[in-house]
Amino acid sequence: xxxxxxxxxxxxxxxxxxxxxxxxxxxxxxxxxxxxxxxxxxxxxxxxxxxxxxxxxxxxxxxxxxxxxxxxxxxxxxxxxxxxxxxxxxxxxxxxxxxxxxxxxxxxxxxxxxxxxxxxxxxxxxxxxxxxxxxxxxxxxxxxxxxxxxxxxxxxxxxxxxxxxxxxxxxxxxxxxxxxxxxxxxxxxxxxxxxxxxxxxxxxxxxxxxxxxxxxxxxxxxxxxxxxxxxxxxxxxxxxxxxxxxxxxxxxxxxxxxxxxxxxxxxxxxxxxxxxxxxxxxxxxxxxxxxxxxxxxxxxxxxxxxxxxxxxxxxxxxxxxxxxxxxxxxxxxxxxxxxxxxxxxxxxxxxxxxxxxxxxxxxxxxxxxxxxxxxxxxxxxxxxxxxxxxxxxxxxxxxxxxxx
Length: 404
Fold this sequence. Notes:
The protein is α/β, with parallel strands linked by helices. The protein has helices at about 1-20, 40-50, 65-80, 95-100, 110, 125-140, 160-170, 175-180, 185-195, 220-230, 245-255, 260-280, 295, 300-315, 325-345, 350-355, 360-365, 370-390, 400; strands at about 20-25, 30-40, 90-95, 120-125, 145-155, 200-205, 215-220.
């Protein structure tokens, strides 16, 4: 009798422990699970996720101040003496079939994470601790056998990972927008490639290249487009801290809309298809704008396009539209763009050249003004705003290039 009671209590204790390890965030449809790992196992797990970006500290620069260096050195020394650090938080985007199996009756990392997502992990919280652990294990190999706590944040979309990072991870040294997003860099790019199949090549710091064909973009450019689409601003200071409350609120508010990510991918898809359609024209000269591809060679043009779509669909900053209106507007933009793309597909290359009016654009861009980058972004934004307002139904792009 007593033995049976003890067994029941043991089962209850196990169940409570498992329930405490696996928690569901019903707000964002994510799972949080905390477990323990050896330092060596943890470093092996996260290393592939960062191989494309160099050192482990590459996502967030190691703090440079004298005080920070002393604290970092103290952390390394404490780790070598057996200190237990706060849990490191790892984000992972899994497919819907895998997500449906959660929660599991296990907490071991190799059973939680499918092999296919391990190269796409993101350290949401703990880059400095990870770098310190790596340094300490180099100085003291026995550290690799020490135990540490790790929390896995499991989600089906990079959108909810960004939301978790911005809302629940604010009590620390402020990061810039670009640095915040670099934490989910690999999953974001992976999702872009899955959802925007028109993109042919992505250039990364570890796989550099030069754009020579349409549908080719750098990873940095796409991250900036993501920021621009959410903030709906053409002039983005990527050094701007997220302590700017308006930027934070705009980003968070958009991430709460489940269709936001899909709308961004739809916008990127339209831009890439236009890029390919425009590129059929090539005047064969050495002029700055002699090819249709030259339009979206320019980051100001890309920013101008995505922000024009974002303001039309989501609304101007501070004037956000409701979910249903956003969806309806995005559907109309896609339908209007499809009609223009069908027209362009039926045109001869020289007709596309006449449609693009690159000579008018070139004259407009040649204006001598200060802050050239800001001027060009504004020009392209005004131009693509005209294109959208006219339902993509123009005889030529001249009204776009003369709108500024």
